[in-house]
């Protein structure tokens, strides 16, 4: 696989923004998993006592993701040697190769099957551990990691409207952070890194950011992050990854609340 994306050739290209770029990259790999885990566990602990917990959490996600994306945008603007093309802020220069298309098709098929299963009520029964007491330090009655995603899904009309904004935000901000900017920093730090390893690094960082979903969630989102990185590197643009990412998140709007576990409604 060859890359259509022109990545920075040296960390010196970031100029006066080198320190800030390094801090952001470390935060995405180390800080974001911890912050995400704490926020989601606190959110799940509020679900049974606060009817507005989900809407409040959506608003917090919007502020945090757009805020971090804007900070990273400022860092990039302060890096005179890194062009828009080197962080994916250009139109696609070519289509992905056959291998990347095959990976995308498999991913889309899995997404469609999972959506169909959710719509069919495959998880409608309450999980036996849903009301468990957690270990000291965890939120009371927090959902098991396997149900963390289900706890996030919208139930009411107002929640669905906010969730639509969250889905679009995730597509735009997370692709900018984890594909556009993060891969530019990694490529600048290790200029000789092959494209395949860049894809693996991007997938690993994205999977760790979803540590609150448990091991299965880390592996699933890691594969997703790797596929989106391959699309980005293969097209030279963040456009297709953003559209795919947003569509994958927005598919949950197709799942009626009646198909979700009773303990989470």
Tags for this entry?
265 residues, mainly alpha, 61% helix
Explain what this protein looks like in three dimensions.
This protein is mostly helical and 265 residues long. The chain contains 8 helices and no strands. It has helices at residues 18-46, 53-77, 98-119, 148-152, 157-189, 195-208, 214-235, 239-250. α1 (18-46) packs antiparallel against α2 (53-77), α5 (157-189) packs across α6 and α7 packs antiparallel against α8. It is globular and about 50 Å long.
Percent range of helical residues: 55-70%
- Give the terminus-to-terminus CA distance: 45 Å
Uncertain segments of ≥5 residues (pLDDT<50)? 127-134, 136-142
Mean of all residue-level pLDDT scores:
87
Structural class: mainly alpha
Number of helices: 8
Q: Can you write the helix and strand succession as a string?
A: HHHHHHHH
Tell me the Rg in angstroms.
19 Å
User: Per the principal axes of the C-alpha atoms, what is the gross shape?
Assistant: globular
* β-strand number: 0
- Report the major sheet: none
Strand content: under 5%
């Amino acid at each position: 696989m060859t890359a259509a994306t022109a990545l920075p050739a040296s960390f010196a290209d970031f100029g006066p923004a080198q320190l800030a770029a390094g801090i952001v990259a470390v935060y995405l790999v180390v800080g974001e998993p911890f912050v995400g885990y704490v926020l989601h566990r606190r959110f799940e602990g509020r679900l049974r006592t606060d009817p507005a917990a989900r809407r409040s959490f959506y608003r917090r996600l919007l502020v945090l993701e757009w805020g971090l994306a804007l900070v990273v945008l400022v860092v990039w603007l302060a890096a005179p040697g890194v062009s828009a093309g080197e962080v994916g802020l250009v139109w696609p220069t070519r289509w992905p190769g056959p291998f990347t298309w095959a990976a995308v098709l498999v991913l889309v098929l899995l997404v469609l099957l999972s959506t169909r299963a959710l719509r069919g009520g495959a998880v409608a029964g309450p999980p036996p551990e849903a009301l468990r007491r957690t270990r000291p330090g965890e939120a009371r009655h927090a959902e098991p990691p396997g149900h963390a995603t289900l706890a996030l899904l919208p139930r009411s009309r107002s929640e669905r409207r906010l969730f639509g904004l969250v889905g679009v935000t995730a597509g735009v901000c997370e692709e900018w952070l984890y594909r556009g900017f993060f891969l530019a920093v990694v490529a600048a730090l290790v200029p000789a890194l092959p494209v395949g390893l860049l894809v693996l690094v991007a997938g690993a960082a994205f999977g760790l950011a979803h540590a609150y979903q448990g091991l299965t969630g880390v592996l699933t989102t890691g594969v997703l992050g790797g596929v989106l990185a391959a699309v980005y590197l293969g097209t030279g643009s963040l456009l297709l990854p953003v559209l795919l990412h947003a569509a994958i998140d927005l598919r949950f709007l197709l799942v009626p609340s009646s198909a979700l576990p009773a303990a989470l409604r």
